[in-house]
């Protein structure tokens, strides 16, 4: 059956809304009360008991309590403890500007009155404990809510053990049975698969028996409720009781709650067809979920027919093993972490080895086929796809870099994502993967040479010259060896950026132009574009007329190829050059357009620079109050991105002049009031277009 003849993805079930929160009034109240007296609260309990949903509910009810908001960081898909701090920073919208993300986090949170939720910490327990201690020491008004199967054992930690939902005793009346949260949850979930389902006198006893057998564990209840798609309630109750009786006879000491959940998942697994069981196990390799095409590419074969994958996915959605979520890119399938961990246990080691190769090959192709350092019309879509697939790409990198035989593939994949690491502000993560790969690939191979210039560039962006310069020197040495000549233009370009960072602007511009000429000679239009950007921005104060020519060429190139993200960067670069040429009006118009696009896609690094330039243009027009307010809004974002205008030579001089002029015209008190107002309120609706007008 061809793809066009298949049933549409909607066959797998309607788009899933967030499940309705049921019960837990006492636990929500307890958690709220405890957080009013402690700065660290850990919710613990067995898998599937509902720690994540309880934390989300508590965070929702406390949203207005914290002036600086509530932020939740999901850690279930993160497997490398070294990436914990940069992952939390990224979740808070902090692109990295230094080699120590934990210190940057402390600096950012130091004056914040915020609740930070760290969800699913048990597999990163020591790393989470260290980071939490550091954050609590450095941010006096910060409160942290953690979910974990184990406590962090951090000083001052208070613990709330999340119990199972209440279950009815034997012999209660329907009205009494209906008051128990376990029954209410089952009825709620049953109604989503069997419209009109409700508790009444005829089914109350069955519901009570089910709740008792499942011991009030929410995940077990939801898996059981999904079975109502296939069988009536009475049969479901018999199935559960018969299965648990068999398990209980094999366990003389009874069934602890974690074994109750395990028994429920065993039962759900046994209800699946052999092909569904295999797909469940294979899909457990995807920490970030998957779409249909990926499931087919990686999981089909070896007793799973390609044409059957879509129906097998539908079966797993029907059984609540998978959740199907409709997004702009289509339906994406994911598992709750407890279900994914169970599936991974059921994956045969020999099958896992076979899948590992397909998984690595698939995500190498994904990264290479969606490179965002290409001047193409779908740049933004590529960027969003990489963001969506990042947990799975991380898993592929971990697989590659865990064995020397695949280290080159991992290094090449991490290198190909260089612009993603930059735009996402994931500099520490990029360097983490690159440096792990470089340690495993010591020979003079092309993959190492390419990785070295990327690693040195990321280190430069973080101000880590101690690492950047030796890596860059080695890159130059390797680039002059046979078969590595294609690396030389990149090495020269990075040397140019290094020269600017050390204050040698003339040499920096000369090196950028040398690299540009080499890229032109090879017809590498994508690399030409990036050289033009750097030459326009960094050269704007050294030779603004030449920088403007670079900017005009870059903008024309991006517009010709309909590369929307690069167009935004080109407008910023050209706008800075035009400002240095004295054309305030064109500078304001260009940078306003760049800022609006950056705001739309949450590109804070570009937006911060745009606001800085727009403050200058407001001051040039004599609107000094607006200039001061915009400097304040930019200042708030400079803090978010972890740097200052002084660290960028093409911003430093004009920032000081704008601030000094506005302060002189307004007076110290009025300037400070406007600046603080801008920092406090940030980007109000219509602010960008008003500033650029």
UniProtKB/TrEMBL annotation:
Residues 1-28 are annotated as: Disordered. InterPro entries: AAA_22, HTH_77, P-loop_NTPase, TPR-like_helical_dom_sf. Residues 274-347 form the Winged helix-turn-helix domain. Residues 36-136 form the ORC1/DEAH AAA+ ATPase domain. Coiled coil: none annotated. PANTHER family: HTH-TYPE TRANSCRIPTIONAL REGULATOR RV0890C-RELATED, REGULATOR-RELATED. This is NB-ARC domain-containing protein. It comes from Nonomuraea roseola.
């Amino acid at each position: 059956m061809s793809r066009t003849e298949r049933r549409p993805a909607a066959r797998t079930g309607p788009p899933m809304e967030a499940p309705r929160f049921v019960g837990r009034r006492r636990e929500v109240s307890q958690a709220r009360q405890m957080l009013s007296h402690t700065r660290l609260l850990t919710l613990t309990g067995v898998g599937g008991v509902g720690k994540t949903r309880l934390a989300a509910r508590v965070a929702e009810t406390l949203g207005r309590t914290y002036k600086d908001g509530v932020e939740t960081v999901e850690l279930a898909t993160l497997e490398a403890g070294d990436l914990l701090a940069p992952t939390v920073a990224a979740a808070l919208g902090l692109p990295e500007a230094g080699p120590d993300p934990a210190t940057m986090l402390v600096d950012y949170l130091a004056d914040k009155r915020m609740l930070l939720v760290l969800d699913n910490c048990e597999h990163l327990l020591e790393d989470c404990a260290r980071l939490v201690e550091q954050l609590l020491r450095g941010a006096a008004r910060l409160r942290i809510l953690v979910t974990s199967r184990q406590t962090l054992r951090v000083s001052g930690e208070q613990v709330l053990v999340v119990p199972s939902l209440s279950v009815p005793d034997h012999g209660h009346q329907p009205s009494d049975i209906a008051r128990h949260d376990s029954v209410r949850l089952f009825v709620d979930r049953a109604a989503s698969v069997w419209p009109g389902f409700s508790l009444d006198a005829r089914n109350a006893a069955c519901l009570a028996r089910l709740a008792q057998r499942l011991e009030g564990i929410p995940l077990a209840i939801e898996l059981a409720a999904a079975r109502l798609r296939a069988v009536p309630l009475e049969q479901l109750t018999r199935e559960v009781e018969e299965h648990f009786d068999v398990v209980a006879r094999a366990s003389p000491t009874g069934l602890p709650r974690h074994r109750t959940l395990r028994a429920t998942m065993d039962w759900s697994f046994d209800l699946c067809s052999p092909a569904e069981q295999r797909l469940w196990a294979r899909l457990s390799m995807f920490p970030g979920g998957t779409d249909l095409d990926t499931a087919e590419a990686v999981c089909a074969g070896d007793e799973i027919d390609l044409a059957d994958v879509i129906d097998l996915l539908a079966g797993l959605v029907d059984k609540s093993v998978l959740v199907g979520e409709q997004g702009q890119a289509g339906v994406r399938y994911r598992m709750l972490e407890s279900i994914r961990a169970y599936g991974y246990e059921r994956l045969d080691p020999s099958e896992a080895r076979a899948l590992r190769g397909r998984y690595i090959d698939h995500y190498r192709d994904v990264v290479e086929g969606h490179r965002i350092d290409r001047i193409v019309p779908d740049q933004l879509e590529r960027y969003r796809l990489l963001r969506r697939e990042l947990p799975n790409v991380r898993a592929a990198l971990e697989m590659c870099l865990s064995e020397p035989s695949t280290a080159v593939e991992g290094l090449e994949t991490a290198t190909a994502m260089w612009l993603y690491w930059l735009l996402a502000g994931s500099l520490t993560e990029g360097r983490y993967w690159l440096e792990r790969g470089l340690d495993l690939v010591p020979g003079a191979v092309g993959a190492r040479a390419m990785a070295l210039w990327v690693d040195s560039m990321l280190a430069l962006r973080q101000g880590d010259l101690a690492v950047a310069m030796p890596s860059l020197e080695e890159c130059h040495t390797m680039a002059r060896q046979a078969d590595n000549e294609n690396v030389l233009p990149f090495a020269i370009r990075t040397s140019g950026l290094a020269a600017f960072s050390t204050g040698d602007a003339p040499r920096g511009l000369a090196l950028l132009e040398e690299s540009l000429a080499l890229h032109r000679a090879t017809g590498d239009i994508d690399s030409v574009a990036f050289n033009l950007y750097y030459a326009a921005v960094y050269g704007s104060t050294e030779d603004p007329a030449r920088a403007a020519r670079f900017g005009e060429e870059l903008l024309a190139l991006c517009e010709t190829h309909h590369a929307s993200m690069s167009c935004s960067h080109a407008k910023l670069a050209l706008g800075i050059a035009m400002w240095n040429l004295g054309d305030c009006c064109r500078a304001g118009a260009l940078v306003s357009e760049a800022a609006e696009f950056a705001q739309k896609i949450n590109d804070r690094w570009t937006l911060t620079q745009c606001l800085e330039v727009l403050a200058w243009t407001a001051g040039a027009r004599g609107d000094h109050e607006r200039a001061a307010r915009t400097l304040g809004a930019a200042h708030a974002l400079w803090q978010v991105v972890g740097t200052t205008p002084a660290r960028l030579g093409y911003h430093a001089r004009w920032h000081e002049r704008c601030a000094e002029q506005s302060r002189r015209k307004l007076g110290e008190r009025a300037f400070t009031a406007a600046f603080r107002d801008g920092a406090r309120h940030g980007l109000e609706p219509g602010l960008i277009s008003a500033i650029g007008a």
